[in-house]
From TrEMBL:
Protein name: Apolipoprotein N-acyltransferase in lipid-linked oligosaccharide synthesis cluster
Top-rank taxon: Bacteria
Molecular-function GO terms, alphabetical: acyltransferase activity, transferring groups other than amino-acyl groups
Entry keyword set: Acyltransferase, Lipoprotein, Membrane, Transferase, Transmembrane, Transmembrane helix
PANTHER family, A to Z: DIACYLGLYCEROL ACYLTRANSFERASE_MYCOLYLTRANSFERASE AG85A, ENTEROCHELIN ESTERASE-RELATED
Coiled coil: none
């Protein structure tokens, strides 16, 4: 059950729908009109054309830099994002060109107008990705507690008879907290040598009980570029999991939001290769750390892996390359294969041009060779995601042919948090059932 939260202040007002983006659009449009209009003939014959041409060239330069030269991520900038970046740049160019024609007070007005146009452009880019649903999410994770305080002392684990779901034998104590906790944790690459950024650990209210229920684990990953905190802020994970726990007597999966990248713009492809031993990190180091620091349910049927975009691709990779660890996966807007832009670029960078080495771990190739009758997987894609929706269908069909218990769900939206956030939230009941939390 999804709960409606009332905005408690300006920091909680929606930035993607409602009054705030409407006001930004109105003010931005008026500011753009004010910057475009002038009674000065020189403005129309010289300065305005210069501003427009420079803005167009700079916008083209941004697009070429991101898509062709820098290539921080494999997919190109969406056309509407490029347009709104261009609007923001145009606002700056118009402001600078208007300055010499204005007096002091007019220059201040031009500065304000230029800033409003920039805000308009950035707002529309944010609406496209739904990256910052509120201003509060821009501030980073809030209300984290130390992992030591969150876990408390080790205690006896509740016995769950074979064939029973945890919820069928669980009785919530009267003093159970209403909300779970979020903590940061450093998970070292003891075996892999991989240097990951700090992870985030969500522990549901039931983790505070004694005896402690053996809760299943969800290993969760963000996209690329991205960071673990994206699921905490943009993904609003704590609220999502607390809502689920409130409907299940305090029970919810333990969530480890881990880093498979090393930095926001790196992409070591979630495999063991020349780029790093990321698969070993996620399949060995992360579970070993959890065993040392947490009390959880054990076994592949109680461990799931999920992620969005690059993280979704990684979830599928782990499901087929480390099936002894992860028996359940949720691939949200993932790719049909790990990539750095093209097959050749990927194989050259990761395996020195060895195509066979890549095919040995590439999920579609692995599923063509092997069967996975004991693995359950769900694929989620946006109906407007023209790039990754077809790829989701491809890997879904491959998963079915490999004998997986697979499903495919399409949600309204594109390659953005409009799909990724509900992509996890709406699949929590499915995950809970597959992980033995609920019948």
């Amino acid at each position: 059950m999804e709960r409606v939260r009332l905005a408690s202040g300006p920091l909680d007002w929606s930035l993607v729908d409602g009054a705030v983006p409407l006001v930004v659009r109105i003010l931005g449009a008026l500011a753009l009109a004010a910057l475009l209009f002038s009674r000065d003939r020189r403005w129309w014959t010289k300065l305005l054309p210069i501003a427009v041409v420079v803005a167009a060239l700079l916008t083209l330069l941004v697009e070429l830099t991101v898509d062709d030269w820098w290539q921080p991520f494999p997919d190109e900038l969406p056309s509407d994002v490029v347009v709104w970046i261009g609007v923001a740049i145009l606002g700056v160019c118009l402001m600078l060109c208007r300055m010499p024609t204005l007096r002091r007070r007019g220059r201040l007005g031009a500065l304000v107008a230029g800033l409003l146009v920039v805000v308009l452009g950035l707002s529309e880019v944010n609406i496209h990705y739904d990256n910052y649903p509120t201003a509060r999410t821009m501030l980073g994770p809030q209300d984290t507690v130390s992992l030591k305080d969150a876990t408390g002392k080790k205690t006896a684990l509740l016995d769950v008879p074979k064939g029973k779901a945890l919820s069928e034998v669980w009785q919530a104590p009267a003093d159970l907290p209403a909300k779970g906790t979020v903590s940061t944790a450093s998970i070292p690459g003891t075996t892999s040598g991989f240097k990951a950024r700090d992870a985030y650990v969500y522990l549901p209210p039931a983790y505070r009980a004694s005896p402690r229920p053996p809760l299943p684990v969800l290993v969760l990953m963000a996209g690329q570029p991205g960071a673990p905190q994206d699921w905490i802020t943009s993904g609003q994970l704590p609220d999502m999991m607390d809502d689920f726990a409130a409907d299940h007597a305090g029970l919810a999966p333990i969530v480890l939001v881990v880093d498979p990248l090393g930095s926001s713009f790196d992409n070591p492809l979630c495999m063991d290769s020349k780029l790093g031993k990321v698969q070993t990190y996620l399949a060995d180091d992360v579970p070993a750390w959890a065993a040392a620091h947490l009390q959880t349910a054990e076994g592949r049927t109680h461990w799931a892996v999920s992620g969005l975009s690059n993280g979704g691709t990684c979830a599928l990779q782990l499901a087929v390359n480390a099936p002894g660890r992860y028996g359940v996966f949720l691939d949200i807007s993932g790719q049909d294969e790990p990539t750095l832009g093209s097959r050749k670029q990927t194989v050259d960078a990761a395996f020195g041009g060895d195509e066979a080495a890549f095919e040995k771990v590439n999920p579609v190739d692995v599923m063509a060779r092997e069967k996975f009758p004991d693995t359950a997987g769900m694929f989620v894609a946006g109906t407007d995601d023209s790039t990754y929706r077809p790829q989701a269908h491809k890997v879904y069909e491959a998963a079915k042919k490999a004998g997986m218990k697979a499903g495919l769900v399409e949600l309204p939206g594109g390659h953005s948090w409009q799909v990724w956030r509900p992509g996890l939230g709406k699949q929590l009941p499915w995950l809970a059932s597959r992980l033995g939390l609920t019948p």
